[in-house]
Amino acid sequence: MIEYTEGIYNFYVYMITNKNRTVLYTGVTNNLKRRLNEHKNHINASSFTARYNVEFLIYYEHFGWIQLAIAREKEIKDMRRELKLNLIQELNPEMKFLNSHFE
């Protein structure tokens, strides 16, 4: 995936989907392993991701500074679905689930 090595911290912008790959969710976190686990276990039962069973990682970018991660998250969230899919398919053409990278 994409990695921005400047900075000394770990932040991730990520996109997750449901089992059928029909729903996309974009988020930012400092601990992707923990966050994926929260999505999987529906920590907030009334959340968008819980309602649509969105828990499968298909894209992520690593950042060393939170400001860059937040700016990138906003940029991705503002994209049309088609552009998000193009972004995902550039680095993950088969849209494989990548959760195992953070177990």
UniProtKB/TrEMBL annotation:
The keyword Cell division does not apply. The keyword Zinc-finger does not apply. Gene3D superfamilies: GIY-YIG endonuclease. Residues 9-87 form the GIY-YIG domain. It comes from the Bacteria. Keywords: Endonuclease, Hydrolase, Nuclease. One of its GO terms (molecular function) is endonuclease activity. InterPro entries: GIY-YIG_endonuc, GIY-YIG_endonuc_sf, UPF0213_domain. Belongs to the UPF0213 family. This is Putative endonuclease. It comes from Flavobacterium xanthum. The lineage of its organism: Bacteria, Pseudomonadati, Bacteroidota, Flavobacteriia, Flavobacteriales.
